[in-house]
Amino acid sequence: MASLMGSSLLARTAITANATALIMFVVLALDLSYAAAGGVAAALTAGVALSGPLLGRLIDWRGLRTVVLTTVAAQAVFWLSVPLMSYSVLLVAALAAGLLMVPAQSVTRQAIAAMTTVPQRRAAFALEAVQGELSYLVGPAVVILFAANTSPEAVAWGVGAAIAVGGAWIGLLNPPLRTADEADADTGPRPPRREWLNLRMIAVLTMAVGVTTLLGGIDLAVIATLEEAGQVSRAALVVAVLGIASVTGGLIYGSQARSLPTWLLLGLLGLATIPLGLAADWRWLAAAAVIAGLLTAPTLSTVADAVSALAPAPVRGEATGLQSSAQSAGLALGAPLAGFAIDLTAPAGGFAAAGIAGLAAAAVGLLLTRRSPAATPSDDSVGVAAEGD
């Protein structure tokens, strides 16, 4: 488990920073606009979002090592070639690279489900959520720092090397994706999608979109609020406070003996986000952001835990891939949603839009779960809303 977490952290930190690396390359090396850079980043993100269930299904069919090492080779070729590409070629290649991104996140989640017992999984998924927060804190900041002080070409090579090394490490570890009781799961018939992609799974995926929509909106609203206050240089500090609070919340939640429903955590996160718009100074905004930060990693961990519990073993790769795609879609939606609200109203509207998106997803998740058949004890333990919650 320690080796898996180490390799996954390396790969995920680089993957988190890959869009930033491409933006810096387009702006600094190709001397093009930020709009052009955003197009390349959007192409990469779209590819990653589309690839989740496809790569997950391939892992279910062909096994972890074959798929992971194939994507590692594709990433090595792409990032080595980035400095040689024109903008038009890079735009197409970025989409292809996204489609063949190393599935470090979904593989880690599958392995956690296979390598832990049910009572251990909440703590393990909380640690995985903390790992994700650390990657967001470290990856983009390191890329920006090095791109500004070295060269964007070297940064692109560095990001590619980190993705390749982390992915190859995961492939060589080849962690189990099935528990001992599920060892024969891949030899039988694959369950039809309509059997496992039911109301409970749709509820969890809806909440996965909701939580990342909220998080994507918060980042933009923080920048807009501090720009209006003439303190935009402090935005990085506020985002860092959010990340540190999230890491703390994940560690605290993982140490608890009882889990909470996903809809409840997401609803509380939404409620904690809306009042952030009342802060007009970076100090007050950072202080107010602590509560939202403390709820972030626990909410993300319950989503991952719920997906692993609800997905049958033969399709767990596809299910975790769908979760990754849902969260990518939420991140892509969050910033435009908050931006639209800010343009219509004020910076506070961005926080309101993000919080309401989280509350709406929590309400839909609760409604869908209550309409589904009765939950099993294992479902309740991972925080999926049930009639008894």
TrEMBL record:
Transmembrane segments: 9-30, 36-56, 87-104, 125-148, 154-173, 202-226, 232-253, 260-278, 284-310, 348-368
Keywords: Membrane, Transmembrane, Transmembrane helix
Pfam families: MFS_1
Taxonomic superkingdom: Bacteria
GO molecular function: transmembrane transporter activity
PANTHER family hit by this protein: MAJOR FACILITATOR SUPERFAMILY (MFS) PROFILE DOMAIN-CONTAINING PROTEIN (PTHR23542:SF1), PTHR23542
Record-given protein name: Putative MFS family arabinose efflux permease
Source species: Glycomyces artemisiae
